[in-house]
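Quick start: read one record
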Amino acid sequence: MLFDYNINNCGWNNFLDPDWHNITDYKIRYQKPKYINLNYRDELHNAVSALPDDNYAILYSGGIDSAIVMQTFYNCNKTFTPFVAEFWLNGKLLNEYELSFEKEDCSQCNATPVRIKLDVKQILTKELDRLCNIFPTWHPERICQMCILENIPKGYILVSGAGDPTIYIKNKKLYWSDRSYALHLKMYSEYLGLGKCIWGLGFTPELCPSLISNPFIKEWFKRINIDNDESASVYDKDEKMKIYKHYFPEVKIRKKIVACNITSIIKKELPEVMPKIESLPEAWGETCYIPIEDLIKFNTDKIYDSKFIP
């Protein structure tokens, strides 16, 4: 399967020859950027502005990513509706913290949210086989997210807050890591006939240099112990919030949480579920590792293959 990060379009027309059921081969094509502006806010604004005028459904979670996406769509005068999922498990609202930002975020963007109530236990015990037969993905929250799309009427173009980078250390070198299992919303959107799900923070070539060359990320590069051959994720640390606070001061900073947290929630409340998820042979999918040096230079078109292992 070849996944195409197109130029300045937040992931429009991404898939080339997709196979939803059996991802044993995964490739990513990056195209040489048409221009480079090291202001991340400006580049994101340019990318969203270039999208056609239509009716967009923003998958708003209350997290910082989708809040930035909604703010950018509002700043670009796009027509959109935020769809907000409630994750309920045994009478408890798992994403209560994130949804505490909903009123302020939506009010600031003059948007009226539409709530979608999801029963996590029902999904993970009754719908797991059905969903993973369509597109196997590893994390319980991703599986639940697929059900959000089943509650959105046709006529919208879907927009996810996904698209942020994960940077890993492998053999004392830094790599951008792209896993195929994170494509679940894009895949399922096409499968349901809802069209192509846009990554609101889509990793387009124009956005790459402005992110990788960001002073906060450069400082993080200096601090990490590259001799420690363990994975390290930029967006698991404070750098993500520093970037957003700098470029989007109008959006309130918040903690990053995982509503369907495996250790504290799923294994505790639904212990019978995880062995089944972990046993899915295709659940982890394939991973493309792209050298950070390539992303900093970014001076040529190139295809990266999951068969390359650092």
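The longest strand covers residues 79-89.
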